[in-house]
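Exercise: predict the fold of this chain.
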Amino acid sequence: MVRSAVLGATLLALTTTPAISAAADDEGWISLFDGATLEGWRVSEHPDSASVQDSVIVLAGPRAHVFYVGDVQNHDFKDFELKLEVLAKPGANSGVYFHTEYQDEGWPSRGYEAQVNNTQSDWRRTGSLYGIEDVKESPVKDDEWWEYHLLVEGKRIVLTVNGQTTVDYTEGEDVKRPEDMKGRLLSSGTIALQCHDPGSEVHYRNIRIKPIVE
């Protein structure tokens, strides 16, 4: 009876306690979010702007960026696919940075941003590669979950929203950027989720990456 009780308790713990796993599933996807905590992530500027509620990362409050700093590929991704589910509240602005790096404050200076914005005043809408190839009409609505799929391979970036390709961009050789965008270049780096401002609330869940290995 004691053995059975211990086995039952062990099975219950395994089924109810999520954990970050570096193990890929059958299709090669690796979870970056354990569904319960921000373990493996680091929040800049205003840590209280990021929380986990009902297996969702909720971003709401003063400007902050939630950087992945976990063990998967030592949080340094070059060629990969990234999938995550997003829900934006009305008037919200956010984004998913990639090929970036942690910084204590300010907008991330390295990497590109896949825009999240259905109805906020900035005209660059969801599905934009911010400031590089911008979308003027959002393909999704507020208060609805949708899937963002990012493909980064070589010099190519493809952004897909609910299966609809919004950007297919190839970075040219010797690209010259304006001073305020000089870090918008492909290299390698981590992923970051943006909390834009106190008037923006955006939810993220089911964050998975599949590194592309030659």
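Check your answer against the key: The first helix runs from residue 2 to 16.
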